[in-house]
Design goal:
This protein is α+β, with helices and mostly antiparallel strands and 523 residues long. It is 21% helix and 31% strand. It has helices spanning 7-13, 19-28, 355-362, 368-376, 394-402, 410-431, 438-450, 455-463, 465-468, 470-473, 479-493; strands at 40-42, 46-51, 54-59, 65-69, 76-81, 92-97, 101-106, 112-117, 122-127, 133-137, 141-146, 151-156, 162-167, 173-178, 183-187, 193-198, 207-213, 221-228, 233-239, 249-253, 266-270, 275-280, 283-288, 295-299, 307-311, 316-320, 325-331, 334-341. Residues 348-400, 418-523 are annotated as: Disordered.
Length: 523
């Protein structure tokens, strides 16, 4: 696509009496005028609006949430729905985020169709009847994007931010509004050519909305509604021919008063039966422009409005009110249909986790029910692991290895001590030796009672086994002497806080019973 130079045409669109005021207005409203409202759009079956980088799709009439579109990584700035082309048929949506990425996706399935990344900030987007998308950026360029092939072409217009764009039904003519208040009717192919320049006697104000009214091919002109930032609403008759005698003319001026309006949120859209829906000065009105004497009818919308969208053929209005309330209206006559709140879902940031909290989560105590169930289970025969030394106590070692995260439970220690006593008594009875004395049992009980000081005390006594294990690994004793010495060392090692840190590990005699040399061998 070739681009034409517009030095000769700029003077035509910007008269000498308007140049100074246009520069002052552009400096005053250098921010994005579209940010007065939240991005939203409507189809015949759905209403779409954004929460940050997420787009919510609501069902018409019930306003129930159907799906969330979460392919954007930055805040969504623009949403536009294809209600014109046969390919889109109310299904295709284009959304643009602050990361300068535009995504075309299917509203019924949520599938991504195409993606476009721009070099300059895009301010407006509009669908065309042929299924393409027209973007207007901050450098005054119009970008035509084809979703089916992901190809695009760019046309340079005047060097001023584009604030509104409306492709005509023939897909060759475009109404373009600028920050300086200019409105151009132009063709982009084969080169940029200005067909009409819309001028008024009012002071220039940024253009916020341009909207064509549908007409038949037999008509010689089309109707174009324009809305400025200061609330000036006009309807123009634009001749389809480019002859010099066929000029654009104003057919309606829709102002409620002749006073000067303050710049602020303003919006318009065509509705059913040739009526115009306007939001200006905090009020929503329906203008009937079919008659010579124009009249309007108010719509009872909330005082605070942060977004508006309309599906013109069905005369259905959607409004984003305060506290994220979504309201739906039927406009023939104006009636509230539904009012549902959809607050944003914001995941709170996770707090930082300190080292102490990580240790506590690892060494969390076992619940009482789980400890009781583990103690009630019958003891399983233990086989010595290849890396275990002879001086380790089998049941206690297994408990320490498998339950390192469960120390600190007094009930668990007491039950384990009792299990160990019963285990030793059975082995002693089978070998013919005397059972464990009651003194040793009381000592074992004192181990569990004195170990209730907390998980740190128990953990330190467990970790100290490796430092004192060598003192008991080198000696093999008879059944009586070795057993009593190990039981005494276990009980004594936990009788005082000082000695609990260096408690020696018992021998493996609880697991493998050794016979005395004097004891006759059994035949």
């Amino acid at each position: 696509m070739s681009t034409g130079k517009l030095e000769s045409n700029r003077s035509l669109s910007l008269g000498s009496t308007r140049s100074t005021n246009a520069q002052a207005t552009a400096a005053m409203f250098s921010t994005d005028t579209s940010r007065f409202f939240e991005p939203c759009a409507a189809t015949a079956t759905s209403f779409l609006f954004s929460h940050g980088s997420t787009i919510l799709c609501l069902q018409r009439d019930t306003l129930a949430l159907e799906r969330r579109f979460q392919r954007h990584t930055e805040e969504v700035l623009l949403i536009s729905v294809d209600n014109l082309s046969e390919q889109g048929a109310g299904r295709l949506v284009v959304s643009y985020d602050s990361g300068q990425s535009a995504i075309v996706w299917d509203v019924l399935t949520g599938d991504e169709i195409a993606r476009f990344v721009s070099y300059e900030h895009i301010r407006v987007a509009a669908w065309m009847r042929n299924g393409n998308v027209a973007f207007g950026n901050s450098q005054g360029n119009v970008i035509l994007f084809e979703p089916s092939t992901s190809e695009h072409i760019s046309a340079r217009t005047i060097f001023d931010p584009i604030t509104a764009i409306a492709p005509a039904a023939d897909c060759r003519t475009y109404a373009i509004g600028y920050m300086n208040g200019s409105i151009l009717i132009a063709a982009l192919q084969p080169s940029f050519t200005i067909l009409h320049t819309l001028m008024t006697t009012r002071a220039p104000s940024p253009i916020v909305t341009l909207a064509w009214h549908g007409s038949s091919s037999r008509q010689k002109s089309d109707m174009l509604a324009t809305q400025t930032l200061d609330g000036d609403l006009r309807v123009w008759s634009i001749a389809k021919s480019t002859a010099a005698e066929d000029t654009a003319r104003i057919v309606r001026v829709l102002n409620k008063s002749d006073g000067i309006f303050e710049p602020g949120p303003n919006w318009l859209a065509w509705s059913k039966n040739g009526r115009i829906l306007q939001f200006s000065e905090g009020q929503t009105s329906i203008w009937d422009v079919r008659t010579k004497h124009v009249s309007y009818e108010p719509v009872s919308t909330p005082e605070v409005v942060s977004g508006l969208a309309i599906h013109g053929p069905s005369a259905t209005l959607f409004v984003i009110g305060p506290s994220n309330n979504i309201l739906q209206y039927n406009l023939n006559p104006p009636t509230l249909v539904a009012n549902v709140q959809h607050p944003p879902v914001i995941t709170p940031p996770s707090p930082p986790v300190s080292i102490e909290e990580q240790k506590e989560s690892v060494q969390a105590p076992v619940p009482a029910a789980a400890a009781a169930a583990a103690a009630a289970a019958p003891p399983q025969p233990l086989e010595p692991a290849p890396h275990e030394s002879v001086g380790e106590i089998g049941p206690l070692s297994s408990f320490q290895k498998n339950n390192a995260n469960e120390v600190g439970s007094v009930a668990s220690l007491h039950q384990i001590s009792q299990e160990m006593d019963r285990h030793e008594e059975k082995r002693q009875e089978r070998s013919g030796a005397s059972p464990v004395s009651s003194t040793n049992r009381s000592r074992a009980a004192s181990v569990s009672s004195q170990s209730s000081g907390g998980r740190r005390h128990m953990a330190s006594s467990i970790s100290s086994k490796s430092t004192t294990r060598s003192s008991n690994d080198g000696t093999l004793m008879s059944l009586g002497s070795s057993f009593h010495s190990s039981r005494d060392s276990l009980s004594t090692g936990n009788s005082s806080p000082v000695s609990s840190r260096s408690r020696p590990r018992g021998s493996r005699l609880r697991q493998e019973v050794m016979r005395s040399p004097d004891e006759p061998a059994k035949k």
